[in-house]
Write a structure and sequence with these properties.
By secondary structure, the chain is α+β, with helices and mostly antiparallel strands. The chain has 5 domains: 145 residues, no CATH class; 167 residues, Sandwich (Jelly Rolls), CATH 2.60.120.1440; 80 residues, Immunoglobulin-like, CATH 2.60.40.10; 78 residues, Immunoglobulins (Immunoglobulin-like); 87 residues, Immunoglobulin-like. The protein has 9 helices and 44 strands. The chain has a 17-stranded mixed sheet that branches. Strands 37-38-44-43-40-41 form a 6-stranded mixed sheet, with no helix packed on it. A 5-stranded mixed sheet has the order 21-27-26-23-24, with no helix packed on it. The longest helix has 29 residues.
């Protein structure tokens, strides 16, 4: 209990003199110590790691050497914050586009810094601060070298041959990734190619096959950091994906034929299907369409059709997403072909099936068309392929895309595939006495879980119920293919203990659900990494995520004779697994 008590105190108030030979303080004084000596309460693990705890006196002690190390960290922490502010300015000025690699390195170093702080590693944290500051300088240098005043977009991804044209009368030539676009520049794809153009605020447009687009206007207001973007589709179609900043601060206008679209959506499709005909589908946010002296407002999952000389189609609900008729999102095959069957969507006149080797569908993507709810796909490559489907109605409106499905093709010469459901986690947490382990592997293979043979269905699906002991339960999965190849994977399933969830430490006296009143009460505990704590006191609610070791802490300022409710729940699903109420007397 002593080691647990030591580990879970996280916030404090400091009242000791910095110039003393040693600094002594009580556990409730920890957060102020952290703020005074390191610059932030969030750096409390450094104080905890550097201090000696005297159990009998319930006191932490920092000697002179530790104070010197913390002072060195504090000096660097000030520099770190200055660099972070500089980083924010650089991002606002386009570093995400023109210094993408340098930005990725800085983001990675920032994560390493937080990890070192959480470990209480002062020396490692200071070293990373130095590297982080260098990375910010590199961003600034790259931004200065790459940015041109009238440039605001670049070709960030492509598949196949993508061409660009300088101005309205330039010659079409091949474009490489990184190509920068100015106003009036054009970009086009061919029958077997696609491309992505990214803008300063993180927004981008994905060009479909046989698409030609002109960046008619691309202006940046440096004072307000707002952008005005206008893209004209002369042929084909594009998918616009606006970032949160793009939706909030920028103006995106897409035109095609006689239609003009003011886009405030993170997912919007527009396609020119004829000389004077445009179809539009809005999947989130809003889009205002102006054409034929009409104004049409599209909400989520709504579309319209604009055709010269005709009354525009009023907002029409898009067709729902098809669902594959599989028992799971994964399927394993040995053959180079597969027949896909999905739910038949009422009102659908055709379907498009995208297949790619990347879950983002931005690499080696092929699109197949089907008039019915089934299609045989041939020549599937060995490895993993991702599939999504969408339906089209009689007006050519593009429906909502299905979830992404995964096909695993095995050649028989490689170790068999093995994937678990729910994201295939390495560490699994549950409050139930049993856990249903489900997944998919190569059909015809033999699966053993902790040495026990588990049945595998003809399609490769498996499911086994595992009885759990309290705490961590190691699981070994071994799959042997028909050809004798073996795959071994290890997982950990932890059975959550409610007693551990509510093994709390209070800075005020507490017993049997009653807590002695104090103006400020610190509550600490040690739960599990995927959980978060919800503390409710009257109308006030605080949500505190558990740390990498399950640690958490919260400070409250209660009234006398009030009730405090503490609930623990999964961070992602919000499912509550334990809740208790305490009376503040």
């Amino acid at each position: 209990m002593t080691s647990l008590f030591l580990f879970i105190f996280v916030f404090s108030f400091y009242n000791g003199p910095a110039e003393a030979d040693t600094i002594s303080f009580k556990p409730p004084e920890l957060s102020h110590i952290a703020k005074e000596l390191t610059g932030s309460e969030n750096n409390w693990p450094l104080i905890f790691g550097a201090a000696e705890y005297l159990n009998r006196e319930n006191t932490f002690v920092l000697d002179q050497a530790s104070q010197k190390e913390l002072s060195r960290f504090h000096e660097n922490w000030i520099l770190m914050n200055q660099s972070r502010n500089h980083y924010s300015d650089l991002i606002r000025n386009g570093a995400g586009v023109f210094a993408a690699a340098e930005v990725a390195r800085a983001d990675s170093l920032n994560k390493v810094f937080r990890y070192n702080v959480e470990k209480g590693d002062i020396h490692g944290s200071v070293e990373v601060i130095s590297l982080y500051r260098e990375s910010i300088d590199q961003i600034a240098k790259a931004l200065e070298e790459n940015r041109v005043v009238d440039v605001e977009a670049r070709l960030s991804e492509k598949q196949g041959t993508v061409e660009h044209r300088k101005g309205l009368i330039g010659k079409w030539i091949a474009a490489n990734i990184g190509r920068l676009f100015r106003e009036a520049d054009g970009v086009r794809t061919c029958s077997e190619s696609t491309g992505k153009v990214t803008f300063l605020d993180g927004s981008h447009v994905e060009l479909a096959r046989n698409t030609t687009a002109i960046i008619r206007s691309s202006r940046l207001d440096r004072l307000t950091s707002t952008s005005d973007i206008e893209i004209n589709i002369t042929e084909g179609g594009l998918l616009a994906r606006l970032s949160a900043e793009g939706i909030e601060r920028s103006s995106y206008q897409i035109s095609a034929a006689n239609a003009t679209m003011m886009v405030k959506s993170s997912n919007f499709w527009a396609e020119k299907t004829g000389e004077h005909r445009v179809v539009m589908a809005n999947y989130s946010g809003t889009t205002t369409v102006m054409a034929e002296n009409q104004v049409i407002n599209l909400g989520r999952n709504q579309g319209t059709v604009v055709e010269r000389g005709n009354v525009s189609l009023q907002p029409s609900q898009l067709l729902p997403a098809p669902q594959m008729q599989w028992s799971a999102a994964d399927s394993v095959i040995r053959s180079d072909q597969i027949t896909l069957v999905w739910t038949d969507i009422p009102g659908a006149v055709r379907y498009d099936i995208d297949i790619s080797d990347a879950p983002s569908f931005d690499s080696s993507m092929q699109t197949y068309r089907s008039e019915t709810n089934r299609r045989t796909i041939k020549n599937l490559p060995v490895g993993v392929s991702y599939i999504r489907i969408r339906a089209f109605d009689e007006n050519d409106l593009r429906g909502v895309e299905s979830q992404s499905y995964r096909i695993l093709r095995s050649s028989g010469t490689k170790p068999p595939y093995l994937f678990l459901a729910d994201g295939d986690p390495l560490d699994i947490y549950t409050s139930q006495p049993e856990y249903q382990l489900t997944g998919i592997t190569e059909p015809g293979s033999t699966l053993k879980v902790n040495g026990q043979t588990v049945s595998v269905s003809p399609s490769g699906d498996f499911s086994v119920s595992l009885a759990l002991e309290q705490g961590q339960n190691p699981v070994e999965l071994m799959v042997t293919s028909i050809s004798g190849k073996v795959t071994i994977q290890e997982r950990s399933i932890t059975k959550i203990s409610e007693d551990k969830l509510f093994d709390l430490t209070w800075s005020s006296y507490a017993e049997e659900g009653r807590v002695q009143h104090a103006d400020d009460i610190l509550i600490t505990g040690r739960a599990y990494p995927p959980l978060e704590v919800v503390a409710r006191l009257g109308d006030l609610e605080k949500v505190i995520p558990c740390g990498i070791n399950g640690n958490w802490a919260v400070s409250i300022n209660p009234e006398r004779n009030s009730d405090l409710t503490i609930a623990l729940r999964y961070r992602n699903s919000k499912e509550v697994i334990g809740e208790r109420t305490f009376r503040i007397e």
